Automatic annotation (TrEMBL):
Transmembrane segments: none annotated. This is ROK family protein. It holds the Pfam family ROK. InterPro entries: ATPase_NBD (IPR043129), ROK (IPR000600), WH-like_DNA-bd_sf (IPR036388), WH_DNA-bd_sf (IPR036390). PANTHER family: BIFUNCTIONAL UDP-N-ACETYLGLUCOSAMINE 2-EPIMERASE_N-ACETYLMANNOSAMINE KINASE, ROK (REPRESSOR, ORF, KINASE) FAMILY. It comes from Vibrio eleionomae. Belongs to the ROK (NagC/XylR) family.
């Protein structure tokens, strides 16, 4: 990761909350004169402003002492974020502080009820949506495209974040799509591409700063992985996302959409869970979409349905298998779980824990796992917004 200069370090802190000069000096480690120089430059550029005076309780004297706080100027430096889901594309017009000024959602141009996730789109389909939404959201705020700082896109799949290439994704017909370049050239705005699981891990890092090392699993459309080691988010080569979903779980097992057989992802996605329970029970699960179906499954589990329990136990074994390997490899015990299937957390957690404790390695190598459910369903969107702003260098 690039080392930030003084200005960007101050801005990164102020993005979280307002700080006093004393607190800024402590947090950045900058000396008084260096900090004064940095804040003056940021004032001159119209990036920061003084907030209302806060009265902080002084513990020694027992009386309040007024203190001037510094904050980022809102309503400047706008960017557009696009978040791709199975249903369609969510778009957000944000300012430099991370505030959302306008948002919209459009469905992919097919009936979602008949939409198979393995049906992908041409890059043009996304490009048209991005163009249309960018114009709509900007027009609402009397902005022109050339006033935007950045366009960012979060997608599932293997993404080379450094060079903005979507190596492969369920959403695209083509592989190695130079998405950042295509959108950047068409709209004339610098474009960055992120993987949704990286966005989620980035957000978790901000939400739980005390967790220096963690594994973040997103169970839903795919099996997403985020990894944080000693406070640093880990990526593959060229900032690529960590692809654990296609690691083999069962040789010659279930067919995966990638073409291989027995990939872990083929056992643990929300669609795989629904298929498994439906085939065991010989009945389809009620619900119009994945989240409604997950609620139905939750009800089946709480009523003690044997087939539902057997399916979730199987899913938990596949997830537990991946987790055990990661935990042993990286010596991590904190695990976050998010995604559509997290609604089944109570049961998944129980079975995963059961699987892990039955693992012989557990006795010597595995630290007692701490599995935490991420209840914020918009964690990845929050991460995308923060990541987008973190790319704007002052
Ligand atoms: Zn696969």
């Amino acid at each position: 990761m690039k080392k930030l200069n003084g200005k960007n370090r101050v801005v990164a802190l102020l993005r979280k909350e307002a700080y006093s000069r004393v607190e800024l000096a402590r947090a950045t480690g900058l000396g008084k004169s260096a900090l004064t120089k940095v804040t003056k430059a940021l004032f001159d550029e119209g990036i920061i402003e003084e907030a209302q005076v806060a009265v902080k309780q002084s513990s020694e004297q027992g009386r309040g002492r007024p203190e001037t706080l510094l904050q980022l100027v809102p309503n400047i430096k706008f960017s557009l974020c696009f978040y791709l889901t199975k249903q369609g594309v969510s778009s957000y017009l944000i300012d430099f502080t991370g505030k959302i000024h306008a948002a919209n959602e459009v469905d992919w141009p097919v009936d979602p009820a008949n939409h198979d996730i393995h049906v992908a789109y041409s890059t043009d389909v996304l490009l048209n949506i991005v163009k249309q939404e960018a114009n709509v959201l900007c027009a609402q705020h009397s902005l022109t495209l050339d006033q935007l700082e950045l366009i960012s896109i979060a997608t599932f799949g293997k993404v080379s974040q450094q060079d903005g290439i979507v190596v492969h994704s369920q959403f695209f017909q083509d592989t190695n799509v130079k998405l950042a370049e295509i959108i950047g050239e068409c709209l004339g705005v610098t474009t960055k591409i992120f993987n949704v699981d990286y966005c989620c891990a980035f957000q978790l890092q901000q939400m739980y700063p005390e967790k220096e090392s963690f594994i973040s699993l997103c169970l839903g459309l795919g099996l997403g992985l985020g990894l944080c080691l000693d406070g640093q988010l880990v990526t593959g080569r060229l900032g690529s996302t960590l692809g654990i979903g296609h690691v083999n779980y069962e040789p010659n097992g279930k067919k995966c959409y990638c073409g291989a057989k027995g990939c872990t992802e083929a056992y643990v996605t929300s669609d795989a869970i629904i298929d498994e329970i439906e085939s065991l029970r010989g009945l389809s699960i009620s619900g119009n979409d994945v989240s409604e179906k997950m609620q139905s499954i939750k009800q089946l589990l709480s009523s003690g349905d044997v087939a539902a329990h057997r399916s979730i136990e199987k899913v938990s074994q596949a997830v537990g298998d991946i987790l055990a390997q990661l935990m042993v490899t990286f010596d991590i015990s904190t695990i976050f779980m998010s995604g559509d299937t997290a609604v089944l957390f109570h049961y998944l957690e129980q079975y995963i824990r059961q699987y892990l404790t039955s693992d012989k390695r557990y006795q010597t190598l595995l630290t007692k796992p701490k599995i935490i459910r991420v209840t914020d369903v918009k964690a990845s969107v929050g991460g995308l917004i923060q990541l987008t702003n973190s790319q704007i260098v002052i």
